[in-house]
Design a protein that fits this description.
The chain is of the alpha/beta class and 422 residues long. The protein has 3 domains: 9-104 and 184-199 and 365-419, FAD/NAD(P)-binding domain, CATH 3.50.50; 106-183, Alpha-Beta Plaits (2-Layer Sandwich); 203-362, FAD/NAD(P)-binding domain (3-Layer(bba) Sandwich), CATH 3.50.50.60. Helices cover 20% and strands 27% of the residues. The chain has helices at residues 21-32, 64-75, 119-123, 168-172, 222-229, 272-286, 306-313, 402-419; strands at 9-17, 37-40, 80-83, 86-94, 97-104, 127-129, 138-140, 142-143, 155-156, 185-196, 200-202, 219-221, 250-257, 291-296, 318-322, 325-330, 336-341, 348-353, 355-360, 362-364, 377-378, 384-385, 390-392. The strands form 7 sheets. Strands 1, 2, 3, 4, 5, 10 and 23 form a 7-stranded mixed β-sheet that branches. Strands 12-19-13-14-15 form a 5-stranded parallel β-sheet. Strand 2, helix 2 and strand 3 form a beta-alpha-beta unit. Helix 1 (21-32) runs parallel beside helix 2 (64-75) and helix 5 runs parallel beside helix 6 (272-286). GO terms for molecular function: 4 iron, 4 sulfur cluster binding; metal ion binding; oxidoreductase activity. Keywords: 4Fe-4S, FAD, Flavoprotein, Iron, Iron-sulfur, Metal-binding, Oxidoreductase. Residues 105-135, 152-183 form the 4Fe-4S ferredoxin-type domain.
């Protein structure tokens, strides 16, 4: 494990900001070509949002298999080093000679000692919302981020932990891995080029007041559906209604929830239609008699994904309704009424379902934040633009599926090593 980086001035050829699928792909391509790479990741684990998916395109397989291969390559590659719970706070210099300041938050767990035995969590009396599962369940204040977390080490949420007032986890840890004296520290890294792979965040569905998220418990988002379907999710892969745990017989997907809307996200996130169709197959696999409605403005399934759309549309229990949803109301017994207009027939419809999934769009993580890189520019939507010595990869650049993000991260790595000297 190469996360225990000493304080002081460090140097490498390339600095990668973001440890998701795009950042890791770029880092591995550059490091396996012989360049020294540092990866800076804000979360306590690598893998980004891909780790939170149940299945991903194009093979519709669980992402853990692909991520495990990436992690194995990292473990055996001395040219790549990573820092979790870290953020870039300042960048100065020029291509070939960047000076990067990185702030590292304390984990309060010594990763060189932690064996992930879990004894600490058993005695911890404090709970927190599980952000990995989008708040649909709880973890203890000391927790393992997820089943394939890399590094496979526990971390303490200092916003809820009582630390020395409690310290039950300290007594339970036979390896003396918990250290409440850890403090935030700042280090400097010299880099010749920078790859920005900061990824995306789901659009805040609470802003869509007409669609009932946060008001009606059985209205969830597409990212929450991924966690419900996942075997390591809050329901161990069982898709059920949040309000009562009931198996839903009717589910509606609302496309462009906030997307292509001047009041929210004015652009198309490119993959939401495919994601909803994919999730419709999750439901049909678990509940053969379930009815699924997909309310859409336009179906977008470019290139090779057109065949997937054709396959899904042939399912007689998946109904595509062309029309933008005006609002969602609550019916009886926790059911929901989807109010829309079918633009093909002109008919105004009120469809009662037991659960609604909002296809919220992809918003770049850099949108609305104070950028630490003065040379980095954003477009009008908040996506980053490459500049000399600073190259953008993945969804930091534009909405895309995993395969496209990986391809573009390889291109960013190639540009980065053209600046760097081996």
């Amino acid at each position: 494990m190469r996360e225990n980086i000493p304080s002081g001035q460090l140097s490498g050829n390339i600095l990668v900001i973001g440890g998701g699928i795009a950042g890791l792909s770029a880092a591995l391509e550059a490091s396996e070509a012989g360049y020294d790479v540092y990866v800076v990741e804000r979360n306590p684990y690598l893998g980004g949002r891909v780790a939170q998916l149940y299945k991903y395109f194009p093979k519709l397989c669980p992402p853990y298999c692909g991520l495990e291969i990436l992690f194995r390559r990292i473990r055996t590659n001395p040219k790549i080093k990573f820092l979790t719970m870290s953020e870039v706070v300042d960048v100065s210099g020029s291509p070939g000679n960047f000076d990067v300041t990185v702030r590292i938050k304390p984990r309060y767990v010594d990763i060189s000692k932690c064996t992930a035995c879990g004894e600490c969590a058993k005695v911890c009396p404090v709970e927190r919302d599980n952000d990995f599962n989008y708040g649909m369940d709880k973890t203890k204040a000391i927790y393992l981020p997820h089943d394939l977390a890399f590094p496979m080490k526990y971390v303490i949420d200092d916003s809820v932990c009582k630390k020395d007032e409690c310290a039950k986890c300290v007594s339970a840890c036979k390896y003396d891995a918990i250290d409440f004296s850890m403090e935030e520290k700042t280090i400097n890294i010299k880099a010749e080029s920078i790859i920005v792979a900061t990824g995306w965040k789901p659009y805040d569905a609470t802003k869509l007041t007409n669609l009932g998220f946060g008001k009606y418990p059985n209205v969830i988002t597409n990212v929450m559906m991924e966690r419900l379907a996942s075997y390591n999710g809050p329901t161990k892969g069982k898709i059920v209604r949040p309000s009562d745990g009931k198996e839903p017989n009717t589910i509606a997907f609302v496309q462009c929830a906030g997307s292509r809307d001047e009041n929210h996200l004015p652009y198309c996130s490119a993959i939401c239609c495919l994601a909803s169709m994919k999730q419709a197959t999750y439901i049909r696999e678990q509940y053969p008699d379930a009815k699924v409605y997909i309310f859409y403005i336009d179906i977008r399934a470019p290139g090779r994904f057109e065949d997937f759309y054709a396959t899904v549309s042939e399912d007689e229990n998946i109904v595509f309704v062309k029309g933008k949803v005006a609002k969602i109301e609550e019916g009886e017994n926790g059911n929901l009424i989807v109010v829309a207009e079918n633009t093909l027939t002109g008919e105004k419809t009120r469809t009662e379902v037991e659960m609604v999934v909002l296809a919220t769009g992809m918003q770049p993580e850099l949108s609305g934040v104070n950028l630490p890189i003065k040379e980095l520019k954003l477009d009008s939507y908040g996506f980053a633009l490459s500049s000399p010595g600073i190259y953008v990869a993945g969804v930091a650049k534009k909405p895309s599926d995993v395969a496209t993000a990986v391809e573009e991260s390889t291109a960013a790595a190639l540009k980065g090593i053209q600046i760097a000297k081996r």
